[in-house]
Amino acid sequence: IPAYYCDACGHMVVAKEAPERCEKCGAPMRQDEDVLDTWFSSALWPFSTLGWPEQTEDFKRFYPNTLMVMGFDIIFFWGARMIFSGLEHTGQVPFKTIRFQGLVRDEQGRKMSKSLGNGIDPTIIIDKYGADALRFAIVSGVAPGNDVRFSEEKAAAARNFPNKVYNACRFALMNLDGEKDDQAEKSLADKWILTRYAACAREVSAHLDNLDVAMAAQKLYDYIWSELCDWYLELAKAALYGEDPSAAAAARATLAEVLEGTLKLLHPFMPFLTDSIYEYLPWTEGSIMVSRWPSPDKVYEKEAAQMERIMEMIRSVRN
């Protein structure tokens, strides 16, 4: 700590450079023997990184911030210190909301540590299964604030989902002709998936607004795996490979709209895969991460209900 004391007269000074003599009495000065912990500087992070104490453009724009996410184990070490440091130095609380999340533990529920030797190197998991699979494995199936148990098997299982997404998009791109012609009359299946896509977008957005990331991921998983891939893509094949050009055009337009929007909804959870596929869409430009968040409004409740009854009949026949 850069604080210096004069034992002769009791004078104390804080300075970047160590004073040779006491400015009051001329006696030697000694430096404080204590140290500041790492959280001392971390507490200054919300504003010190933005050019404070200068009133920079970054400081004006980004302070105070909106959301801070941290583990529950550092509420006092970091959260509380950022708040009182922000109040002291800027007069403002550094953020409006804090979301406390759980810790990533090993498959037995133990905290990962060097002494136990139970830590998992994320770079090894990424090399084997991909960064998106690791990201989705950690975020899915976790209640807000609860710890998550992680094992390599979980990442291996999560890899099936990006593979499913990749294959579905590959099929779609093979059948798209470069334009989103939305003039053709939609089929029952087209109207059903557009309605389900709109519902998924609303629910995912609501969950993210409530900071319930796991529920948003689960909703996307169910919609993409079951409704989009297992049902609609199979139903669309009849129109795409059929002899009715109008039905094929409607299926292509529907597929294009739903595919683009679904990639955007999935992007926060699988950023690399979605950005890579987005670049191949013939009508898009730039990165998906700076595109507009989807808010679809095509809803066909009556037709969707009819389609659900047909699907239920198909399930019964299969059973």
Give structural notes:
The strands form three sheets. Strands 2-1-3 form a three-stranded antiparallel beta sheet, with no helix packed on it. A two-stranded parallel sheet has the order 4-5. Strands 6-7 form a two-stranded parallel ribbon. It is mainly alpha-helical and 319 residues long. 53% of the residues lie in helices and 8% in strands. The chain contains 13 helices and seven strands. The termini are far apart.
Short précis:
This protein is mostly helical. It contains 13 helices and 7 strands. It has a 3-stranded antiparallel sheet with strand order 2-1-3, with no helix packed on it.
Write the layout of secondary structure elements.
Layout: E1 3-5, E2 12-14, E3 30-31, H1 38-42, H2 45-48, H3 57-62, E4 65-71, H4 75-90, E5 95-101, E6 104-105, H5 122-129, H6 131-139, E7 148-149, H7 152-158, H8 160-175, H9 188-209, H10 213-240, H11 245-266, H12 271-278, H13 301-318
Parallel strand pairs: 4-5, 6-7
Antiparallel strand pairs: 1-2, 1-3
